[in-house]
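FAQ: What does a ligand-bound record look like?

Like this one, built around NDP:
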Amino acid sequence: MAGLIDLARRNWQIFNPSELPKVEKPLMFGILGAADIAPMALISPAKTHPDVKILAVAARNYDKAKAYAQKHGIPEVKASYQDIINDTQIDCVYIPLPNGLHYEWAIRALQAGKHVLLEKPSVNNTSEAEMLFRNPVLSGSQPPVLLEAAHYLFHPAWTQFMTYISPQDVASAKAVLWVPRWQFAADNIRYRYDLGGGALMDLGAYTASALFRIFGNVAEACEECDVQASSIDANCDRSFKARYRFPGGGHGEMEGDLKASLDRWSPNIHVTHRPVVISAKEAGVSLTEAQEAVRVRKIKFTTFVQPAFLHAIEIDDEFTIHAVADKKSVIKRWKKHQTVKCYSFHEAGIEQIGEPHWPTYRYQLEQFVNKVRGRETPQWVDHEASINTLRMIDMAYTAANLPLRPTSK
Ligand SMILES: NC(=O)C1=CN([C@@H]2O[C@H](COP(=O)(O)OP(=O)(O)OC[C@H]3O[C@@H](n4cnc5c(N)ncnc54)[C@H](OP(=O)(O)O)[C@@H]3O)[C@@H](O)[C@H]2O)C=CC1
Ligand SMILES: O=C1OC[C@@H](O)[C@H](O)[C@H]1O
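The answer part, i.e. the structure of the complex:
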C-alpha cells in the first residue's frame, strides 16, 4: 500500500513540480524549436532549478513559437534559431531539433560561446561526432560546455544498477526499448532519413550506450543486425535486432521497435556475468583452504530509461562452494534474490542532491548547471562516450546493409 502511495505521489509530482525562486542571476536558456520533448526534458525541470531560467524559444514559424512560449510561460520569442544564438543575454542553448540538424546548430551555438545541451543521439554518425566533440572550439582554457542529453545515465537508479555490474566479468547483456505503435505519426522526424531518422538512431542511442557501459568498452564488431524498414522511408529502420561482440568475448544484444505491440513491456536490460571466484566474506560463509566459492550473477533492470516513474533492479546470485582441486564438485549450492529501487542518491547512500520525484531530466539539468558553474559533476557523459554511441549505431547500420545517416554539409 505504502508503495502504491509513493508511486502515485511521485508521478503526480513529476508532472506538477513546485516552482522554486530563482537566484539573482540564473543561467538563461534559449530553445531551438518548439519541440515535443522540450517541456519534459527542460522546461519542467527548469522550474525546480533555482539557477535556470528559460528565456526564449524560436521556431521556424513565428506564430508557432509564440503559441508555444505562451503555453509554457517562456517570456521571449525570437524570429529564428540564429537569433537565439546571437542573443547576448542567453548563456545556454538547448537543441531538441531532428538528429540531422544537431551538428550544424551545436557548432553554431558553441562558436558563439554558448553552452549546449544537445538532444540524443548527439549527431548523425561517427564522423560528425568526431568533428563535433573534437572541435577546436571545445579546447582552450574555458571552453563552453557540451553535453549529449543521455538523461537516463543521470538518475540514481543507473548509478545503483552499475554497482552490481563488473564490466570485465559480463558474459552477455541485452537491452530493449520499444515504443507503442501509435506514438509516432507517418510524418514524424524518426521516419526521415534526411533528418537522421531510424529506430537505431532514436532507440538505439539508449540501448547502445547502455551496452558499452555494461561491458566497459565499445563493441569490437556488430555480428548481425536485422532491421525492418519503415514503409515511409526504406532507409529508415522501424525496428532493429543487433548482436555485438565485445572485447573479452562477451556478447551484447539490443532490440528496438518504433511500432511495438502493446504486450511488449520495456525498456529493460538483462545482464549475465561469468562464474567468478569470490571471497568467503562476499559469499557469507567460511571456507577451508581446499574450498572456493563461485558466484554467477544475473541482473534485470526494468524501466532503465524512465526510472523515475517506476523501476526495479533485480539481482539473482547463484553461489557454489566446490573443492579447489575439483572445480566440478559441488559442496554446497544456494541462491539469493534481491530487488532494489533507488529514486534518490540518498537512498543509494550517496550524498548528492535530489528528490524521489525528480525525473532523469532534472538530475541531468543539475549536472549540466554544475559543469557550467565549474562545479564537480559526479555523473557526466564524456565526449568520447558520445562518439562511442554513434560508433555502435554505425556498426549496426553497416551490418544491416543500410546507409549511415548523412554527414552534414
Ligand atoms: N531525451 C528524450 O527523452 C527524448 C529526446 N528526443 C530527441 O529530441 C529531438 C527532437 O525530438 P521530438 O521532440 O520528438 O521531435 P519534434 O518533431 O517534436 O521536434 C523537433 C523540432 O525540430 C524542428 N525542426 C527544424 N527543422 C525541421 C525539419 N526540417 N523537419 C521537422 N522538424 C524540424 C521543429 O521545430 P520548429 O518548432 O522550429 O518547427 C520541431 O519542433 C530528437 O533528437 C530526439 O531524438 C525525443 C524524444 C525524447
Ligand atoms: O528519446 C526517446 O525516448 C523514448 C522514446 O519514446 C522516443 O522515441 C525517444 O526519442
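Follow-up question: can I read anything off the structure? Yes, for example: The chain has twelve helices and 15 strands.
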